[in-house]
Fold this sequence. Notes:
There is one protein chain. It contains 16 helices and 18 strands. By secondary structure, it is of the alpha+beta class.
Amino acid sequence: MVKNDLVGIVGKENIRDDPAALEEYAGGSAENTPAAVARPADTDEVQRLVQWANESGTPLIPVSSGPPHFRGGTTPGVPGAVIVDLRRMDKIIRVDAHNRVCIVEPGVTFDRLQSELAAHGLAAYMPLLPRSSKSVLAAALERDPILMPSVHFDSTDPMLCTELVFGSGDRMRTGEAAGPDTLEQQWELGKAQISPFGPTQMDPQRLISGAQGTIGIVTWMSLKCRETSELYRAFFIPSDSLEPLIELSYHLSRIRFTGKIFIVNGLDLAAIVRQSPAEIAALRDELPPWVMFVGFEGCGLLPEEKVQYLEDDLAELAARYGLQAQTGISGIEAGQLYPLLMRSSPDPYWKLRHRGGFRDLFFLTTQGKTPGFAATMTDLTGQLGFPRENMGTYIQPVVQGTSCHCEFTLYHDPADGAASELTRRFEAAAVDRLETEGAFFSRPYPGWADVAYRRSPDTVAMQKKVKDIFDPNRILNPGKLCFAAGEKRGN
């Protein structure tokens, strides 16, 4: 019956219900295997799917990125759901070089977008080496942090305007894109879908940011872009301890030092630049415990002079904290890493190279608290027996350095049942401990939600009211965030 209904909306050739396709989305859960996968071609078909789901009571799980999926946000939380695979919607609708804005559909990946933008002298704001199948739109919705904190002005950057279909079936355009005119008519009037604010006094794009598809399905998005240049400089700043790097990072943030800035431990850096487990382990043992990466480009007027004064400033500022900016370390050239950061990760995805599998654990905090969280994680490895040498750390300043994304990657062999179980238990214990110490899990994926919401009953009540308004029949991705599977409206 479900398949017959879907045929009339997306066409027979755009439906899959074979076991292999369903297993891809089930996330290893036989209990919650989806009923079918539907691949809509445009917003009209997405809206018809949502309206049908409301009439039939069928849960919908929107998915924009290709496999493999790691976080569980697109794994069905209930049986009988229909996966709305948006990868067929893969148009780059517009590139506006003058206003440095592009408009993309959900199926557009980073490498494809970067290639298109390069022809216009532009580049996307990149997260740290996303997997090759990662949707640009999904990364922005999930608030994956970008590498350039000095131009990160808001937690939702680089997202601007959107078109979306709420769980109620209503269709809306947000920000400057709202209004009666089509996009083409707005372009003729000089609008560029830049301002994300509105319509009126509300910012509905904030309702869908980080919502894991529980409020609405986004069918296109306008995104900030930036000028790019082939003239760049890149440096590593090694340290035996994290504290001086954090102090330097704060200083760079205060003066709005342009460019890419992030901190990783030796294991994560080794996994980024090496391919085999043996190569990664060998380089990890050579590298210092902590490394800051700083890279910048010579855009605009006097590009050579710009990179030279930034290089001189970085050397001077690093020396103030007893640090040294180096072009290379342990045989790795920072200048060779910089172009890699402009693209998605080459396959195999960099986090799969060391042990074949991993679990990410990330949250928001202030940079000054990261040494304490790193010490807590090290302490937990000793208590629970998780191999310390298999824990990566990534610290990304965000929103002009006012806070940071702190991420711990737990590498393990998925074929080793004992190691996988140990990783699962370690993750659960770490989330509980870190939240107690002040970690803010702003994107609570499955397994973290109970901990993230346990001190926030008012937030839970508010989010459920929002859900009642925009997804009254609870059809969109049930079981995620604080929306329990099977929960009825108003509960």
